[in-house]
Automatic annotation (TrEMBL):
Biological-process GO terms, alphabetical: nucleotide metabolic process
HAMAP family given in the database record: Maf (MF_00528)
Protein name, entry field: dTTP/UTP pyrophosphatase
Assigned EC number: 3.6.1.9
Required cofactor names: a divalent metal cation
Function: Nucleoside triphosphate pyrophosphatase that hydrolyzes dTTP and UTP. May have a dual role in cell division arrest and in preventing the incorporation of modified nucleotides into cellular nucleic acids.
SUPFAM superfamilies: ITPase-like
Chemical reaction(s) catalysed: dTTP + H2O = dTMP + diphosphate + H(+); UTP + H2O = UMP + diphosphate + H(+)
Organism whose genome encodes this protein: Pseudofrankia inefficax (strain DSM 45817 / CECT 9037 / DDB 130130 / EuI1c) (Frankia inefficax)
Annotated positions for site Important for substrate specificity: 14, 72, 156
High-level lineage: Bacteria, Bacillati, Actinomycetota, Actinomycetes, Frankiales
Length: 202
């Protein structure tokens, strides 16, 4: 099996770090896709639509590669929360998440630009939040951390203090479910060895 060129279609430093930790060489190419979704069939469908869009947006720039696109969303009571647009949205999102359990879904799409074959899969984890007061939310929003994060928090950062428990893969919450990606790459004949210990560190 020939070595495949692997391209991560993402500007996310978290995705880059998690992919690097898998131990495979890769390049990063970014694009500026429109992240609005016209219609969807739940959070997995929503995240997969955007993951495909991100992969397809860079696919034309590489002729023989596996291009990886990903998108992470938070879902609670049927509402999908992406990255908050501003402070008010971050505050409102965190108020909704307080004291409740929500789902974090990452859609991954891997596109083979040599053949046009696309493989995709979504991973889901459940995150239970402590109940937090408005003052605590205000202080967290003022830290700036919520702005480029789905659901307006980062479990691996200061936002970890808001989290009571994570059920499922932590790397999925941070933006790249590595077990799922290993499976998708294996479908293209790229075998990535499993880590010695579960990937639970940010
Ligand atoms: C819930 C949660 C999300 N996130 C991040 C993961 C994703 O990077 C981000 C969701 O935004 P995404 O749109 O999925 O990704 P992105 O804009 O960061 O990068 P790109 O589109 O270029 O690939 O939220 C955390 O880092 N920690 C968390 O606890």
């Amino acid at each position: 099996m020939r070595a495949r060129r692997i391209v991560l279609a993402s500007g996310s430093p978290r995705r880059r770090e998690l992919l690097a930790a898998m131990g495979i060489p890769f390049e990063v190419l970014t694009s500026d896709v429109d992240e609005t979704v016209a219609g969807h069939d739940g959070p997995a469908d929503f995240a997969l639509q955007l993951a495909r869009r991100k992969a397809q947006a860079v696919a034309g720039r590489v002729t023989d590669a596996l291009v990886i696109g990903g998108d992470t969303v938070v879902e609670l009571d049927g509402t999908i929360f992406g990255k908050p647009a501003d402070e008010a949205a971050a505050f409102a999102t965190l108020g909704r998440l307080s004291g409740r359990a929500h789902r974090v879904v990452t859609g991954l799409a891997v596109l083979d630009t040599a053949t046009g074959v696309l493989r995709q899969e979504a991973a889901t984890s459940t995150v239970r939040m402590r109940a937090f007061a408005d003052d605590e939310i205000r202080a967290y929003v003022a830290s700036g951390e919520p702005f480029d994060k789905a659901g307006a928090y980062a479990v691996q950062g200061l936002g970890g203090r808001l989290v009571a428990a994570v059920d499922g893969d932590l790397d999925n919450v941070i933006g790249l479910p590595t077990r799922t990606l290993r499976r998708l790459l294996a479908g293209f004949g790229v075998e990535v060895s499993a880590p010695q210990a579960p990937a639970t560190q940010a």
